[in-house]
Amino acid sequence: MGFDSILILDDEMIVRKHLEEILRKRRYRVQSAASLAEAGERMSKGQYDLIFCDLRLPDGEGTDFLRQYVKGKDAPIIVMMTGHGSVENAVECMRIGAFDYVTKPLSINQVEVILDKAERYEQLVEVNQYYASSEDSATQLHGESAAMQRLNELIGRVAKTDATVLIQGETGTGKELISHEIYRLSQRSGQPYIKVNCAAVSETLIESEFFGHEKGAFTGALQRRKGRFELAHGGTLLLDEISEISLPLQAKLLRVLQEKEFERVGGSSTIQTDVRVIATTNRNLLGSVEKGEFRRDLYYRLNVFPLQSPPLRERREDIPLLAQKFLKDFSRKHGIPVKGCTPEAMNALIQHSWPGNVRELQNLVEHAVIMTPTNGWIEPIALGTLAYIGGPQPSGLPAEIMTTGNGSENPVVAQHDESGDNSAKPVKSLADIERNHIHRVLIQTAGNRSQAAEILGVNVRTLRNKLNTYRDEGHVEFKAFD
Questions:
Q1: Cα–Cα distance for residue pair 242/277, rounded to 1 Å
Q2: What is the number of structural domains in the chain?
Q3: Full-model pTM
Q4: In this structure, what CATH number is given to the domain that contains residue 451?
Q5: What domain range is 233 assigned to?
Q6: CA angle 120-122-127, nearest 5°?
Q7: What 8-state DSSP symbol labels residue 273?
Q8: DSSP collapsed to 3 states, 375-426
Q9: Is residue 133 one of the residues assigned to a domain?
Q10: Would you say 285 and 166 are in contact if contact means Cβ atoms under 8 Å apart?
Q11: Cα–Cα distance, 256 to 241 (Å, whole number)
């Protein structure tokens, strides 16, 4: 981890040579310029991460250079140097935007302190930009069941180490929350926590997401960009849905985990990285290995400490706790005071099979809060999704009319018989039920395909293909999700 290229702007050859020697020993790419004109030429031909700039130059002032190049998204870090320092000059340079102001000659220790400080600052800026452009939905793990107590015990053990962790479990069981809890309890908790959803990034761009790219590496690469491994340097990197990456990229990922180094796409410089990796998948990864879809050596490299995220149906005693938490959260979010769930509604929640796990429960409670009158109680009728999905329903759950995606009414009625088996029996075909359910989930997620795919238990590519098929078949309601 460090700067790719450094420019030294000083008219004294002895100063330039001294700095070049120090920097090249640390394996930086270094270029020099003796005047503003020469520096301008170099700036027009290449990009620099760090610049040492003299205050007085033969053809002008270093502050003029500082004003010209300190602004902009990809502006370099500029350190001003002078042989005749003064408080006024220092204040002026810092006001304009200099990173530091030092007096010559510079010792080796001074240069190393500047480099270390500048590298930490650059990483902080990059990580802040990443967080500003991403949505952090991390929250605490909740549950008091035996399964959750055991999981929390294992999290506490592995969090104190730097071991690579592989978290497996069904979609919606909270694998990302487990990862964040490991990070929160680790010795790296003060360092970056960076995520990449391998299923949500196209195959052509995923390598750039991992390792970054150089300017001009491919069409659209207008600037050099750092990848997630660089951003996570010193911290933790979550590789969400790791099973979705291609075999060629798996080989490159294996090299990074083994050698702790990589090159950006289109670059030749080797970059060292110190990252703790956590990976998640909703697939049986060992099964993927047996099918030849996932590298065996990478599987064992990731599976140092395996964790299993339990499905909600295996910890039903946690459902009331989770439901009440989500009710409180969404009541506050939407400004709809709700008293709670009736016993019948809570019974319906507890008995449901929850194929979408905790995420499905979260979405259903939000829907129920919106459907419940202010200061009212959530009744079973507000849990319409349970009747739509089908399966055994608790006694007392009313029948209701569900609306299909094309606007027609499709009754899904809880049929009561003497045996007490109240099974929802849809009138439409299985294909219609699947299509209508996908449409409802897309509405529920405001068209967010990644979130919808997670709820449905499929990858984004599968969902995209289904949407294309539905549009080709003339189902106009899906055009809203182009």
A1: 11
A2: 3
A3: 0.60
A4: 1.10.8.60
A5: 146-310
A6: 95
A7: -
A8: CEEECHHHCHHHHHHCCECCCCCCCEEEECCCCCEEEEEEECCCCCCCEEEE
A9: no
A10: yes
A11: 18
- How far is Cα 169 from Cα 309, in angstroms, rounded to an integer? 5
Say if residues 403 and 409 touch (Cβ distance below 8 Å). yes
Q: Do 342 and 420 fall into the same domain?
A: yes
CATH number for the domain spanning 44: value is 3.40.50.2300
CB 413 within 8 Å of CB 424: yes
Q: What span, in angstroms and rounded, lies between the C-alpha atoms of 353 and 221?
A: 47
- Least confident piece of the model among 207-211, 253-257, 274-278, 424-428: 424-428
362-382 pLDDT tens trace? 999 999 999 998 888 998 888
Is 153 in the same domain as 58?
Answer: no
Same-domain check for residues 72 and 150: no
Q: How many residues does the chain have?
A: 482
Which residue bears the tokens 């304009």? Answer: 96
Distance CA 416, CA 414 (A): 6
Give the tokens for residue 449.
């395909």
Partners of 415 in the β-ladder: 423
Tokens of 415: 């049929």
262 membership: H or E segment, kind and range: strand 261-262
* CA-based R_g, the chain, Å: 29
**Do both 290 and 359 map to the same domain?**
no
Helix, strand, coil percent content, the chain, rounded in steps of 5: 45, 20, 35
Q: How many CB atoms lie within 10 A of CB 68?
A: 12
The CA-atom distances, in angstroms, between 75 and each of 43, 57, 70, 125, 396 are 11, 21, 5, 12, 65
| Residue 423 lies inside a defined structural domain of this protein | yes
* Element counts in the chain: helices (H) and strands (E): 19, 19
| 96-151 pLDDT tens trace | 999 999 988 888 888 989 988 888 787 777 666 555 445 444 457 888 899 999 99
Both tokens assigned to 28: 């930086």
For residue 103, being part of any structural domain is answered with yes
Upper half-sphere CA count for residue 104 (Cβ side, 13 Å): 19
Written as six digits, the tokens of 308 are 């299993």
Q: Which residue do the tokens 């960076």 mark?
A: 194
